[in-house]
Design a protein that fits this description.
Strand order of the largest sheet: 1-4
Shape: globular
Strand content: 5-15%
Distance between the termini: 32 Å
Structural class: alpha+beta
Largest sheet: 2 strands, antiparallel
Order of helices and strands: EHEEHEH
Number of strands: 4
Length: about 100
């Protein structure tokens, strides 16, 4: 038996939350914090971010750069939730702890 789960997956940016405002984290400030920690945003997709310098010339992930980014966000007070912890947007599985 297969379970069909309606709703979209939250984007990575939505999974960074402040512990005192789960599901209501200030999206404008979060974006600024991501940028100050070395993240960047696509002009085509304003909620999808990348991490500057996180790939080498062959496209491999440079783990130290990613860890430095995560550490910076943690130092700014953010918690990062997994897809399973967030649930899916606008569905019965939405836990109400993530927001775009």
């Amino acid at each position: 038996m297969t379970t069909i789960c309606n709703g979209e997956v939250y984007p990575s940016i939505a999974r960074y939350q402040k512990p005192y405002s789960l599901g209501k984290t200030n999206a404008v400030q979060r974006r600024k914090d991501i940028e100050s920690c070395g993240g960047f945003f696509s002009k085509d997709d304003p909620i999808d971010y990348g991490i500057k310098g996180s790939r080498d010339k062959n496209g491999k992930t440079i783990l130290q750069v990613v860890e430095d980014f995560r550490s910076c966000m943690k130092n700014k007070g953010y918690i990062y939730f997994s897809n399973a912890e967030c649930g899916r947007k606008n569905s019965k599985t939405d836990k109400g702890i993530c927001n775009e």
